[in-house]
Design goal:
single chain, 7-stranded mixed sheet, about 25% strand, Rossmann fold, Quinone Oxidoreductase, Chain A, domain 1, alpha/beta, 8-stranded mixed sheet, about 725 residues, 31 strands, 23 helices
């Protein structure tokens, strides 16, 4: 299938080939019939992409602060690579999609194959959309009309926040598609509307929808017009749907309102507010959040948990339905809002028009490709000539997952080792195709089972969400593949036991002379700094005391990593790195575990953000892991100290290793941060060739078990 993406580096818009996405349990698979380009919203993305680095930085000052802080702690080279990687990652475009359901997830009810659906899906021939972001289209509403529903919901949510009543006088500033839809909805609600814009053509449209209009460029005093409109009482509310960096619109809005008037910001404006304007009139000001309640709530959007109707009458989905009802009743006319119609294949030309300054409104993309031509789950990215002997590239990789860490760190590390990058698998297909093309994969796919069963692939790399790891490891081992899995190995004991059984079963097969390798991405033990530390400590035959501090940073409580069923919590998901590292440095079995958290359980999610873990080892060594989220970003993220035999080793952020009390060692410094990712991959591949593990399975199993036990202790104490 084809999909539209935009490069954030240069603003270029392209049409790419992507495998058909997999539908998850809470989603609908939709074959697109039409989608809408909102010229105003998508022009902002294009303009941002085309801006130079200075302009990009000026638009996102908070990001600049983060970059500067990262340079101080991680170094210039590491930071530069991270920024470049972020900017080079194209993004999908579009959020107004109409199509026909082709498949229904197992946990979705109320929808059937063949239903016409409106959703916030991208500009793509096939999309998967969570059930709460979809709504059925009435028979008397056309596909073209329905493409305006999402924008209509944005307008409707702004109006709901304004709480208009019959007969009130409302001002709408900015007559793009959302503004013109807002005019119609307000008129349907029995309100008088004053519409303001600098475009005369759009003002004429607003007049056709029943509004009184004002062009600030033609009228000397907009405030006077608003005063006349309100019969010298001041308007009841102002809904701003314009996009500008100027503060003037906010100032004018405040001045034209009556006492206790309401101002709702749906668009984007400068927000340097005059206290005097708001104070004297006791004005209310509120920013509207997109389509309505549920937006940016992962429980609602991703998990499919609806809000109770009695307590939240209007959600995203119910706003979609309300707009559709208005269309079906003839209260919203979209025919005058269409400025362009184009075949989907010519979409890049439409974006060029937008980029050139074309003042369009709704731009309809029409999809005509046959459904059967959209359903390929695997697409070719590049043709690679493989030597007959396979001596140059003996290891063939299937990558499952292509998120930020996988695409920025893992994939380049494997590529640098000269392996065959065969297939990258993702659920949606897009990130796989984009990163696969950039890094030289031969295929992009959404079919995991096919990759596991592909005889040309001998090694699987798993870089998906944590809850999928144990199942994918077991399936990969069962398929006879070498396995590299990102931490954690498993988020629960059941999954860990299943891996142990499968690993030992395949290891004990008498007819299998070649041992299949299992590796967890515990990269820190392979850092040049840790290698040096181990060399120095090997000369001392005494127990060690270790202190490891991870200034982990705050992650919102609604992030998936906190979810016990998906991420498993931060201890299982990230602190396991330090449990492994401590186990590796000491080189002895862990025999004692304790932990204490100062976090609280929040909404059924485990808040393991601020934790102290103490581990005791068989040789008498002990260590403390401080895993903290309440520190400053200006402080280095990771610090390690080892005390032994009157000597100390101190490692700061995997850049500088210092020795105290060592006769022949004072310091070891690398010009860039080295957390051992490349050496970790190299060791895994070497293990395959040497037929012996890079990390003993007993250690992998022990670290995973200890991580689970730590999490259990913390949760029992709450």
């Amino acid at each position: 299938m084809k999909q539209i993406v935009q490069n954030l580096k240069n603003g270029e818009t392209t049409l790419i080939e992507v495998p058909t996405p997999e539908v998850s349990s809470g989603e609908l698979l939709i074959h697109t019939r039409a989608s809408l380009i909102s010229a105003g919203t998508e022009r902002m993305l294009i303009d941002f992409g085309k801006a130079n680095y200075f302009s990009k930085a000026r638009q996102q000052p908070e990001k600049v602060k983060e970059v500067i802080s990262k340079i101080k702690t991680d170094g210039l080279a590491t930071t530069y690579e991270a920024v470049q990687s972020k900017l080079s990652q194209p993004i999908p475009l579009g959020y107004c999609n109409v199509g026909e359901i082709a498949a229904v997830g197992s946990e979705v009810h109320g929808f059937s194959v063949g239903d016409r659906i409106v959703s916030n899906g991208n500009h793509s021939e096939v999309v998967t959309v969570p059930k709460n972001l979809c709504a059925k289209i009435p028979d008397n509403v056309s596909d073209e009309q329905a493409t305006f529903v999402v924008l209509g919901a944005i307008a409707l949510q702004g109006i709901r926040l304004a709480k208009p009543t019959l007969g009130e006088k409302i001002v709408v500033i900015g007559l793009g598609v959302i503004g013109l839809l807002a005019v119609q909805i307000l008129r349907a609600n029995g309100c008088s509307v004053l519409a303001i814009d600098i475009n005369d053509d759009r003002l004429k449209l607003a007049e056709q929808f029943g509004a009184i209009t004002v062009n600030p460029n033609s009228i000397d005093n907009v405030l006077k017009s608003a005063n006349n409109f309100s019969k010298q009482r001041g308007v009841d509310a102002v809904i701003i749907t314009a996009s500008t960096s100027s503060d003037e619109i906010m100032s004018q809005s405040a001045k034209m309102c009556r006492k206790r008037g309401r101002i709702i910001l749906v668009g984007v404006t400068g927000l340097n507010l005059s206290r005097d304007d708001f104070y004297k009139k006791e004005l209310s000001f509120q920013v509207s959040c997109s389509y309505g309640p549920g937006r940016y709530d992962s429980d609602y959007e991703e998990s499919g948990n609806d809000y109770p109707l009695a307590f939240v009458r209007w959600t995203e989905q119910r706003n979609f339905e309300a707009v559709l009802d208005l269309m079906a009743a003839g209260k919203i006319d979209t025919s005058l809002l269409v400025s362009h119609r184009s075949p989907f294949e010519e979409a890049p030309n439409i974006y060029k028009l937008i980029s050139s300054g074309e003042q369009g409104l709704g731009m309809i993309l029409q999809y005509s490709a046959k459904s059967t031509l959209r359903l390929a789950k695997t697409v070719v990215l590049s043709q690679v000539s493989i030597p007959n002997t396979l001596k140059l590239m003996p290891i063939s990789i299937g990558f499952i997952g292509a998120g930020n860490y996988a695409s920025r760190i893992l994939m380049p590390a494997f590529k640098a080792m000269g392996v065959r990058l065969h297939t990258v698998v993702t659920l949606a297909g897009l990130s796989g195709s984009l990163n696969g093309t950039k890094l030289g994969f031969e295929f992009s796919s959404t079919d995991t089972e096919n990759v596991l069963n592909n005889q040309d692939i001998d090694t699987i790399v798993i870089a998906t969400r944590h809850n999928t790891h144990s199942d994918l490891v077991c399936r990969s081992l069962k398929a006879g593949k070498h396995v590299f899995v990102e931490k954690p190995l498993s988020i629960d004991k059941e999954g860990l036991n299943a891996i142990q059984k499968e690993y030992l079963d395949q290891k004990n097969r008498k007819n299998d002379e070649y041992q299949k390798q299992l590796m967890v991405g515990f990269n820190r033990r392979f850092s040049v700094h840790i290698v040096k530390m181990k060399q120095l400590l090997s000369t001392l035959n005494e127990p060690k005391s270790l202190i490891m501090t991870m200034n982990a940073g705050f992650i919102p409580n609604d992030h998936w990593v906190h979810d016990s069923k998906i991420g498993g919590g931060r201890i299982i998901g990230e602190a396991c790195h330090y449990i492994d590292l401590m186990r590796h440095i000491v080189g002895e079995k862990i025999i004692n575990i304790n932990a204490q958290s100062m976090g609280q359980e929040v909404s059924g999610k485990f808040n393991d953000d601020n934790v102290v873990i103490t581990l005791g080892f068989m040789d008498g060594s002990f260590g403390t892991i401080n895993y903290l989220s309440n520190g400053s970003k200006a402080f280095p993220k990771e610090n390690i100290q080892v005390f032994c035999a009157g000597r100390v080793l101190s490692l700061e952020n995997f850049r500088v290793l210092k020795g105290y009390g060592w006769p022949k060692f004072k310091s070891f410094k690398t010009w860039r941060q080295d957390k051992g990712q490349k050496e970790c991959v190299k060791s895994f591949l070497s293990a395959i060739n040497a037929n012996r593990p890079a990390i003993l399975f007993n250690e992998l199993f022990e670290v995973a078990s200890v991580s689970l036990e730590v999490a259990k202790i913390l949760r029992q104490k709450k």
